[in-house]
Amino acid sequence: MKSVVINGYGTIGKRVADAVNIQNDMKVIGVSKTKPDFEAKMAVKKGYDLYIAIPEREQLFKDAGIEIAGTVDDMIKEADVVVDCTPGNVGPANLEKYKKEGVKAIYQGGEKHDLTGLSFNSFSNYDDSFGREYTRVVSCNTTGLTRTLKPIDDLCGIKKIRAVMVRRGGDPNQVNKGPINAIVPNPPTVPSHHGPDLKTVLYGSDITTVALIVPTTLMHQHSLMVEIERSVEKEEIIETLEKRSRVLVLDAKDGLGSTAEFMEYAKELGRSRNDLFEIPVWRESINVVDGELFYMQAVHQESDVVPENVDAIRSLLELEGDNEKSIAKTNKAMGIL
Ligand code: NAD
After folding, report:
1. What amino acid positions are annotated as catalytic residues?
2. Residues 161 and 216 both lie in one domain
3. Annotated binding residue 76
C-alpha cells in the first residue's frame, strides 16, 4: 500500500484525496491547507490528517479548534508521492522541497510543462511517466481534448485539428471571478495555449485553438473540427467513442442539450459533489463533412482530471505497468462509465 499526500486540499485536491482513498493499492496519509476554513474542518471530519502549509498560522488553526498533525515539511517526509494541487505557479517553490526530501511529485495543469519536462494523460503517454520522479497531469481542457482525440487518431489518423474552447468564467464557489455579463476572447490572441498543451501528451498533433470565457460556472464546451487521414463514416466515430471509457456519447434529444443538463445527469448518477469524470460528447454533433470530422463536447472542469491523477500515481510509483489495467482499476473503484 503506497502512501500519498495531497498538498493543497482545494477543488482538485479534495477530489483526488477521495479518489485515492477508495483504491486498494494506495492511501492518503495527509492533506494540507493554508487556511482554517470549512474545507479544513471537513478534511479532519473525514479522517484525513491535516498539515499546515504556512507554519506561522498554527495558532489560527488552534483558535478554530482544528487539530493539525504538523507542517507540509513533516507531511512529505512520510510520503511515497505528493499530489501537488496548489494554485498555479506555487509549484516551482514546492519542487525545491520535494527534491530536498527525495519524494516523487505530480503537478496539475496550472503549472507549466517546463516545471517537470513531462506531462501526463492515462490514454496517450502513461508509459513515459513510468518510474519517473515528477510529472504533470494536463489541464481539464487538455484532458478533455485528449480523451476524445486519442481514440479518433487510433481509428483513422488525424491530419489537423481546429478547436474553439468556450471556457467557464470560474468554478461554482469562485465568487470573485467573471465575467458576469460578457463574452471575453481569452486569450484574445490566436492560438490560445490549449493547442501547445495538447502536444505535450498527444505528441506530433497539428492543432490550433481559440478560446473564449463566458458567464457560466458549470462546464467548459469545445467545438472540434478534425481533418482525418482515412475517410470514415460518422457511425464508426460514434462506435469508437462509445467503446472508450471516460467518454460518454449522450443525446441532446434525451433532454441533455446543454451543459446544465449534463450536470443534472451527474446528479442523477448519484455522484459525490455532482462530479462528471467522463467527457460527454453530443451524439447529434458528430458528423463527417467532406472528409472533415466535426463534434462538440463538454468538460466538467472540477473533476475530469481526477482519475488521471490516480493513474499518474500508479505510473510514477510503478504500481501497474499497463495503462489499460490502471485505467480499469481506477474506473472500477470510482464507478466511472
Ligand atoms: P483551489 O484554489 O481550489 O485549491 C488550491 C488549494 O491549495 C487551496 O486549498 C489553497 O488554500 C491551497 N494552497 C495555496 N497555496 C498553497 C501552498 N503554498 N501550499 C499548500 N497549499 C496551498 O485550486 P484548484 O482549482 O484546486 O487548482 C489546483 C490546480 O489544479 C491548479 O494548478 C489548477 O490550474 C489545476 N486545475 C484546476 C481546475 C479547476 O477547474 N478548478 C481544473 C483542472 C486543473
Report:
1. 140
2. yes
3. no
Q: How high is the pLDDT of residue 249?
A: 98
- Total domains in the fold of the chain: 2
pLDDT in tens, 41-98: 999 999 999 999 999 999 999 999 999 999 999 999 999 999 999 999 899 999 999 9
pTM comes to: 0.97
Residue 94 shares a structural domain with residue 166: no
In this structure, the answer to whether residues 63 and 211 fall within a common structural domain is: no
199-204 contacts at long range (C-beta below 8 A, 24 or more positions apart): 200/113, 200/119, 200/138, 200/142, 201/119, 201/120, 201/121, 201/124, 201/125, 201/138, 201/142, 201/146, 202/121, 202/124, 202/145, 202/146, 202/149, 202/150, 202/153, 203/124, 203/125
11 is known to lie in a ligand binding site: yes
State the closest ligand 1 atom to the C-alpha of 301, by its place in the atom list counted from 1.
40
- Residues 110 and 147 reside in one and the same domain: no
pLDDT at 278: 98
